[in-house]
Fold:
Amino acid sequence: MPISFASAQLGKYGSDISVGNLVYNIEYVVWMIFALVVVVCFVVAGIMFLTAQGDAKKLETAKASFIWGVAGVAVGIIAYSILYIIGNILIY
Structure:
């Protein structure tokens, strides 16, 4: 009886291995790292705004940091969308 349980478990886990699942897992990890970097970028920009204390040069640096953060988010979302669209075209 235990032998049949063991073979059932091997079949259960072995059938989930595919290139599509591997790509999905890598994509998920990269997306989570991207989200973490975005949060850190905006926190740093916010701290730069708070510590500028009215200094025009520091405010310009903080604004530039914020704008580059927004641009990075836009590029990341567009890149993820392109991967999603290409994946749907290739799958269907």
In short: The chain has one domain: 17-91.
